[in-house]
Amino acid sequence: MSDFNSIADRAAAATPPAIARKVRGLSDRAIAWLFIAPTIVLLLAINIFPLIWTVYLSFTNYASNRPNRPVVNVGLKWYQDILGSPEIWASMQATAHFVFWTILLQTVIGFGLAYLIDRKFRGHAFWTTVILIPMMLSPAVVGNFWKFLYQPQIGLFNYIVSFFTGIPPSSFEMLGSVTLAPWAIIIVDTWMWTPYVMLICLAGLRSIPDYIHEAAEVDRASRWRQFWSITLPMALPFIMLAVLFRGIENFKMFDMVMLLTGGGPGSTTELASIALKRQAFEAYRTGYSSAFAIILFVVVFGLANVYVKALNKVKQR
Amino acid sequence: MKLEPVVKNQSAPRKTWPRWARRGIQENLAVALILLGVVMLVQPFSIVLYGYSFVTVLVGVVMFIIVSKFPE
C-alpha cells in the first residue's frame, strides 16, 4: 500500500500543473471516456466507416479507376448479378471445398499431434518447437517455396510421391492439373496451419486436471473409454474454437493461394477472395466487388454467430 | 380455528411473452436459416437455390440478432 501511495504521489507530482488543473475538474466517467476515446475513434475510422462505405458503394456504379464519373445509384443490380453469376457460384464452391477439407484435416492431425505431445516424452519441447515452425512463416514465403516443392521436374514433393507410389515424378503436375490443384492448396494450408490447431488443442488437453484421469484409472476405465468420456468432451470447446478461427481465416484465404496457383488452372482454385480481388483491382468494378464483399461478410458473420452459439452450448455442459 | 397461511408463488414468471416467441425456439430457427442459406450458397446442383442463398442467410442473421435479445 505504501508503495502504491508513493507511486501515486510521484505520478501526481510529475503531472504538469496545467494538466492537473484540467483533469481535477473531470468526473471518473469523463476520464474513462478520455482514455478509451482514441481506441474508439481508431475503430470507427478503420473498421466501422469502411464497412458503412462499402455498403453504400455496393448500391452504386462507382469505379475506382474513374473517380470523376458521376456516381449513380444502381439499387440491387450488383447483388442480382453476383447471385446469378455461374463464375462466382463456382468460386463459392471452390471456397467451400477448400474450407471443408482444410478444417477437417487440420483438426484431425492437429488434435492427434497435441495428444502425442501432451504425453511429455523425452524431447517433447524440442519437437513442439519444430512442429510450430511452419506457422511462424509468412504465407508469401510458404507460397513461394511450395511452388518449388511442387515443380514436376525438380520438386521434392513429386519425388517423394514417386518414391512411395512408383509413379514417375514428372508425370503429374500438382499445380497445373485441374484435379490436383485444389488438393495442392489444401495440402499447403494444412501443412502451415495444423500447428496452430495443435497449439490450441494442447492448451485444451493441458487444462484437464490429472485427478480426473486418476479417478478414471481407479475405476478401471480403459484408455479408449477415458479418451471418449474425459479427454475429448473436455477439450471440445478448444477444438471448436480452433475450428472457428481457421474457418473464418480460410473463408478469407487469399495470399497463399494467389502465390501458389493465382486461381488457376482455369478458375479451379479461384477462391471467393481471389474472385473479389479480380473484380475490384483488375476489372475495377468497385460497386460490384463491394456487393460481393458484403455478401461474404454476411455469410461469415452468420456462421460465426452459429458457431459461438454452439460453443456456448458445449461450455454449459 | 386454524388459519392456513396464504402463500403466493412469487417466483413464477408472468406470462407476458408467448411461448412460441421465446429465445430458444426462435434462435434455433435463425440458426437453421443461416445454415440452410450457406448450404444453398455452396451447393453445386441448382443456380436458383444459389440465387436465393444470400437472402436466406441475411434473414437468418437479422433474425438471430433480434431474437438473441428475447427472454429465455
Automatic annotation (TrEMBL), chain A:
It is a multi-pass membrane protein. The chain crosses the membrane at residues 31-56, 98-117, 124-142, 180-205, 225-245, 288-308. It comes from the Bacteria. Gene3D superfamilies: MalF N-terminal region-like, MetI-like. One of its GO terms (cellular component) is plasma membrane. Its main location: membrane. GO terms for biological process: transmembrane transport. Residues 92-307 form the ABC transmembrane type-1 domain. It is found in: Cell membrane. Keywords: Membrane, Transmembrane, Transmembrane helix, Transport. The keyword Transmembrane helix applies. Belongs to the binding-protein-dependent transport system permease family. PANTHER family: GLUCOSE IMPORT SYSTEM PERMEASE PROTEIN GLCT, TREHALOSE TRANSPORT SYSTEM PERMEASE PROTEIN SUGA. This is Carbohydrate ABC transporter membrane protein 1 (CUT1 family). It comes from Dongia mobilis.
TrEMBL record, chain B:
The keyword Membrane applies. The chain crosses the membrane at residues 24-43, 49-67. This is Uncharacterized protein. It comes from Dongia mobilis. The keyword Membrane applies. It comes from the Bacteria. Keywords: Membrane, Transmembrane, Transmembrane helix.
